[in-house]
Design a protein that fits this description.
2 domains; 246 residues; mainly alpha; two-stranded antiparallel sheet
């Protein structure tokens, strides 16, 4: 009987321990798991916050850099515009000074040339060039387009410039000269008597408007040209100024 009671007490004590200890162990294990999960989540959120903060800072720095570059470009552009205006003003003033110091030539008393100039070239020789067919039509229309309203002398000066340039630079046709030298006059106008007669005098007869080679010309009323004014001035007639190459 005593042995039975002792056994029953041991069993009861074991049951009591199981009932008390096991739930406690499970509770503490669950609590530890929750703590670990919470800690992991907190660490992940912290890293995410750090990345967001870093991204914001990087974006702000990039924006500030881009704004600074844009400002510098705008300043450079404004400075370039100011310099360009000053340069254009200087060139314009120089051209006006040069133009005013080169009055138009007078009609020549020498039947060989149409105008007297202040710097005739004694070594200048004019030659005739045979131009026919399509190229002749281009020539007459080109003279018309460039100087049709400049009268006979104006047409002769332009025709001489074309002829002298063909000889100096070895052009084989008027069309190749026209495209290479940048003549922009329209070829749509039918040549008048002044243009036709000028071509005959300069090309067929080997005549010359002035005793000097002419290579370049331009109209100051339509544009400014520092390049032309840097060449050797020959003569001014009506709206055109004519130059030889240095």
């Amino acid at each position: 009987m005593k042995r039975f009671k002792r056994l029953a007490a041991v069993v009861s004590l074991s049951l009591l321990i199981t009932i008390i200890v096991v739930p406690c162990a499970v509770f503490f294990a669950s609590a530890q798991t929750v703590t670990d999960v919470t800690s992991t989540q907190s660490t992940t959120e912290t890293k995410q916050d750090d990345r967001v903060t870093k991204s914001f800072v990087d974006d702000r720095n990039l924006t500030n850099k881009q704004d600074s570059q844009t400002t510098e470009k705008a300043k450079s552009f404004d400075s370039a515009k100011v310099k360009a205006k000053k340069t254009a003003s200087v060139i314009k003033k120089a051209e006006n000074t040069v133009i005013s110091s080169n009055p138009a030539a007078s009609v020549s008393t020498n039947s060989k040339y149409l105008l007297d100039i202040s710097n005739p070239d004694p070594s200048y020789v004019s030659y005739s060039i045979n131009v026919t067919g399509y190229d002749r039509d281009v020539l007459e229309r080109l003279v018309m387009g460039e100087a049709g309203a400049e009268g006979y002398i104006g047409c002769c000066l332009v025709a001489q410039a074309i002829r002298d340039t063909m000889i100096a630079d070895g052009f084989k046709s008027v069309e190749s000269l026209r495209t290479s030298m940048g003549y922009y006059a329209s070829l749509d106008r039918t040549p008048n008597e002044d243009a036709l007669n000028a071509v005959k005098f300069i090309f067929d007869e080997g005549g010359a408007a002035v005793q000097h080679s002419i290579i370049y010309f331009y109209a100051p009323a339509l544009c400014t040209s520092g390049f032309h004014e840097s060449q050797e001035f020959v003569v001014a007639h009506n709206s055109h100024r004519f130059f030889d190459r240095w």
